[in-house]
């Protein structure tokens, strides 16, 4: 049952990166859109994420619950030594959700709308940025559980070039996912071409930020190159991700939007697999050379069994309901087209 829990943990992280990432990317795209075009972008975003955006955080909640219940020592280490980026990420989620709600449903349209807009777009950037910082911190061997001062314990554990580069990479990925997802939601040719350009731009930005991650890993002496190219799985997944990028670029001018989404999701899946396979089952690499392993840091066996069964049974209710929710709010494409014409 332990492996069932671990599979759910990895899957929840992946789905939050894919679905939540596309959600955050909506605000990132708006942030990097010129003022005259923001109103059109905003209408499209409401159409795509408005009805179901909150459901994306379900995967984050599942991840936290699994760590808290099944792997308490790992949860404790993260909560203590990288609590600052964790708090900033959570504040970003709260600020983003609040701003999204008020700017959409506020009965009075006044200058506060501009405040809501700024909070929404900047928190959409900040949240995945610190999510990436958290991810980078867990494998950078900078978490020092033996630290005797505040800076070493709570600042330098996450504030370094590698984690910052991973944060920027995560932001670029979110913008890319959102743009690819939105392409399939509109029929207006001009607006579709706009989002294709944005998808290309964020894809290039992701490749550039990925290069920064490799450069930072060399500077910080993190064996990322070995994780990626030092084993057959890493080489294979990197090759498949590269091939999928090539295929995706050949599809930009076609109407195969579902295939575009599939390839984009496949790329992110390969990236997550590359970064987790080599040091599996270790989930946190510590500065003193030790690691926190999912196999060794598990909770009580009965607790793991109960958690595993809860996840299995819960998925039977959650997944069909989530699919039904998304399907129910999918409007015909013609309605999106009319939104731009009005």
Automatic annotation (TrEMBL):
Main location: membrane
One GO CC term on file: plasma membrane
MF term (GO), any: electron transfer activity
Record's bilayer topology term: Multi-pass membrane protein
Keywords linked to the UniProt accession: Cell membrane, Membrane, Transmembrane, Transmembrane helix
Transmembrane segments: 6-32, 53-74, 80-99, 119-139, 159-182, 202-219, 231-252, 259-277, 306-329
InterPro entries membership: Cyt-d_oxidase_su2 (IPR003317)
Record GO biological process: aerobic electron transport chain
Domain of life, per lineage: Bacteria
Subcellular location: Cell membrane
Family: Belongs to the cytochrome ubiquinol oxidase subunit 2 family.
Protein name listed in UniProt: Cytochrome D ubiquinol oxidase subunit II
Species assigned in the record: Pedobacter psychrophilus
